[in-house]
Design goal:
Elements lengths: L17 H11 L2 E4 L28 H13 L5 E3 L11 H12 L4 E6 L6 H10 L1 E7 L10 H15 L3 E7 L3 E8 L2 E8 L1 H4 L21 H4 E4 L4 E3 L17 E2 L6 H5 L2 H9 L22 H12 L1
Parallel strand pairs: 1-2, 1-8, 2-3, 3-4, 4-7
Antiparallel strand pairs: 5-6, 6-7, 8-9, 9-10
GO molecular function: 4 iron, 4 sulfur cluster binding; catalytic activity; metal ion binding
Keywords: 4Fe-4S, Iron, Iron-sulfur, Metal-binding, S-adenosyl-L-methionine
Cofactor: [4Fe-4S] cluster
Length: about 325
């Protein structure tokens, strides 16, 4: 089911009434992405970190802010996904274990997930993550920082990861030059191990990376309707391709949760509502969204009609 099937007029109109904002969030958001610290050990060519320093210093989200976000989610009995990967490497600091335990205690029905480059992961660490509450993990197979996709090298790198983790695997995708993926067996945890060719299936990350910059985006986007993203500094943005530490993306920051802590009111704010409205048109998208190749979804006539009626309400 597409989120376009769930569109309502309230998604494109702001409210400053907390109860209404909380209910809209509860009905809409199924993924919350929280960056608990800034550090990443890599400078991958397909990521803005190639030119932005996330290595020299590690800045942490304030523990009080993290606890506030978790408490707010608990107030609506949130049962969607919480993921811990933004533009950091979430397994580089074992503080993630404490954050997972806190989330699991407060949100017993939420799915705790992260993406990782796998550099810090071994079988013992995997057990610790599981015991702390994680039940979903994507291990992405990366080559050297500036190395482009090579299918044979990705397969070899994947085999090295498997040997380190000591887990059974099932090959699910083997598309030369495009994608290689396995499902790994570990208790009741969902684990994907995969490598992908970002030149084929990547995006420019808000016009920051030289991938598909000649693409013209006209399709609507539903990402800012069902996702919430909070950077390590407490700033909330409407899309995973935006980040608050990039000057060109500053205009897309919805709020600083250190100053106004409600994730519900931020989701329902004038800035968020206006951004969602702008993503529903069939016109060329503007600014950092102009060449976005992420979240493409061809629309049925029925969904186009629903979008039109939402905008006209």
């Amino acid at each position: 089911m597409s989120f376009f099937d769930r569109l309502q007029p309230y998604h494109v109109y702001p409210t400053d009434e907390l109860d209404l904002a909380r209910e809209m969030f509860r009905r809409s958001v199924s993924q919350v992405e929280i960056e608990i610290f800034s550090y990443c050990n890599r400078r991958c060519w397909f990521c803005p970190n190639e030119s932005i320093d996330r290595i020299t210093h590690n800045e942490y989200m304030r523990p009080e802010l993290y606890s506030s976000i978790i408490a707010q989610l608990a107030s609506i009995q949130y049962s969607g996904m919480i993921t811990y990967s933004r533009y950091n490497e979430p397994l580089a600091d074992r503080i993630i274990l404490d954050r997972l335990r806190e989330a699991r205690a407060a949100l017993p029905h939420a799915l705790l997930h992260t993406n990782t480059n796998g550099d810090y992961l071994d079988h013992e660490y995997l057990n610790e993550l599981y015991d702390a509450g994680m039940r979903s993990l994507n291990i992405q197979i990366y080559l050297k920082n500036h190395e482009r996709y090579d299918h044979d090298k990705v397969i070899k790198r994947g085999e090295q990861t498997l040997k380190r983790l000591q887990l059974p695997s099932v090959l699910t995708i083997n598309q030369p030059g495009v994608w290689y993926e396995m499902n790994l067996g570990f208790k009741d945890m969902k684990i994907r191990l995969y490598g992908r060719n970002f030149e084929v299936n990547g995006t420019s990350r808000g016009n920051q990376v030289d991938i598909k910059k000649d693409y013209v985006r006209t399709l609507p986007c539903n990402i800012p309707f069902w996702n919430v993203y909070v950077d390590y500094n407490g700033k909330m943005v409407p899309c995973c391709n935006y980040r608050s530490d990039i000057v060109e993306h500053e205009e897309y920051v919805l709020n600083d949760l250190n100053e106004q802590p409600s994730i519900f009111l931020t989701y329902a704010s004038p800035a968020a509502a206006a951004f969602r409205r702008s993503m529903l048109t069939l016109e060329e998208k503007k600014g950092a969204c102009s060449n976005c190749h992420f979240g493409l979804e061809q629309l049925t006539p029925q969904r186009i009609d629903r979008i039109a009626s939402t905008l006209a309400a």
